[in-house]
Amino acid sequence: MALKVFADRMSQPSRAVLIFCKINGIDFEEIRVDVLKNQQFSPEYKAINPMSQVPAIVDGRFKLFERYPGDVSKRAKIHSVLDWHHSNLRRGAAGVVFNTILAPLNGIPSSPQAAKEAEKILMRSLTKLENFWLKDGRFLVGSSQPSIADLSLVCELMQLELLSEEECHRILSPYKKVVEWMEGTKKATAPHFDEVHEFLFKAQKRFREQTSKKESGKNEFKSKL
């Protein structure tokens, strides 16, 4: 029986798990849970994941993440990266995108102060990534190929693509190792990386068009004053 992965491709952890399954040749069925429609809170999904989060994996044996490196030391390092990620990089990147793009576009009150604080966390995290986590090689923990840690962190940073091109460049360009590592991870997991991110790229185009229209409207209004 094929593994079932309940996911939403707008979710960073979902994308990481989907790419991981594809590059490892794991037979699985992808079942979409539309987070924007709050499907993660349905009774049916709560029966699968009471925490109402995506992704969720149904296998019976729950062996998906046993495909970590066999080296115990390297496996421990990957766990360390993932623990750090959730408390640092994820807080920063998600906070910036939510308060800058997602909240305003969905009619939710956003906080400029929260966006500034999130960007501070993001910049500190990118500095740590540049100078510490990527110091030993092309990929995290000195690996010669991407692990689930690389996928998780790169998928997290990919959501910055939802920002304007200028903002995305401003945030990432000072971190040369990070940019090279992101490109290396994309190439090493091709064609699956772009295929899984196609949904994000479509959202990026839509959000940038909406933002452009709003800016155009503001400028037109000012010109009439």
Question: What are the defining features of this structure?
Answer:
225 residues, mainly alpha
Q: What's the topology here?
A:
Layout: E1 3-7, H1 12-23, E2 28-32, H2 43-46, E3 56-58, H3 72-87, H4 89-105, H5 112-133, H6 148-158, H7 165-172, H8 176-188, H9 192-224
Helix pairs in contact: 1-6, 1-9, 3-6, 4-5
Descriptive overview:
About 2% of the residues have low confidence. Helix 1 crosses helix 6, helix 1 runs antiparallel to helix 9 and helix 4 packs antiparallel against helix 5. By secondary structure, this protein is mostly helical. 30% of the residues are buried. The chain has nine helices and three strands. Helix content is 60%, strand content 6%. Strand 1, helix 1 and strand 2 form a beta-alpha-beta unit. It has a three-stranded mixed β-sheet with strand order 2-1-3, covered by helices on one side.
Task: Characterize this entry briefly.
The chain is mainly alpha-helical. The chain contains nine helices and three strands; from the N terminus they run E-H-E-H-E-H-H-H-H-H-H-H. Helix 1 crosses helix 6.
